[in-house]
Design brief:
Distance between the termini: 71 Å
CATH architecture of the largest domain: Roll
CATH class of the largest domain: Alpha Beta
Structural class: alpha+beta
Number of domains: 2
Strand order of the largest sheet: 2-3-4-1-5-8-7-6
Number of strands: 8
Strand content: 25-35%
CATH superfamily of the largest domain: 2,3-Dihydroxybiphenyl 1,2-Dioxygenase, domain 1
Order of helices and strands: HHEHEEEEHEEE
Number of helices: 4
């Protein structure tokens, strides 16, 4: 009985001490370096928003891949097996399954869309993204026509050979 009371008392003391320390730590002002990091992150986030992110997978058997990702908790979102592509969703995570459409996997960004493929009001046009990438000496393997305002895409490859597709649908 004494051991039970001692154990309960220890748990209560630990909980109270943890709660107290958390309240002290969480009310401490941010250091100058923390404030600087937050400001820098906010500025970067306002500069170049690439849109909804997904991984586009080149699959051998779209039915087998669909079953695998369903078992991971993904649901059908867009496309269709008969079209040889299927977009699957789990929360904000998007995976595109593409059979026979391209080689290798792609990291895909969609300016102008959110994770539900809904138009967002304010977004950075792909031509502006392209201009920014070129100013940073990022080599593009395909480019958007800078003289248009219609849907367009561009591609690049990162230093490890991963292909990046930026595909604006509007």
């Amino acid at each position: 009985m004494k051991k039970s009371i001692s154990f309960i008392a220890a748990v209560l003391v630990s909980f109270t001490l943890g709660f107290y320390l958390h309240s002290i730590i969480s009310t401490q002002p941010l250091t100058i370096s923390e404030q600087s990091y937050i400001r820098k992150s906010q500025k970067q986030n306002n500069k170049m928003k690439l849109g909804a992110f997904s991984v586009s997978l080149s699959v051998k058997d779209i039915n087998a891949s669909k079953l695998f990702y369903k078992n991971l908790g993904f649901i059908d979102f867009a496309g269709g097996i008969e079209k040889n592509y299927l977009i699957m969703k789990n929360g904000n995570a998007l995976i595109g399954l593409f059979q026979g459409m391209f080689q290798g996997n792609l990291l895909t960004f969609n300016p102008g869309w959110d994770e539900d493929a809904q138009n967002i009001e304010h977004f950075v046009d792909i031509r502006k993204i392209q201009k920014h990438l070129k100013s940073k000496n990022i080599k593009l393997t395909t480019e958007a026509d800078e003289h248009t305002t219609s849907p367009a895409s561009l591609m690049s490859t990162d230093p490890d050979g991963n292909v990046i597709l930026i595909n604006q649908h509007r």
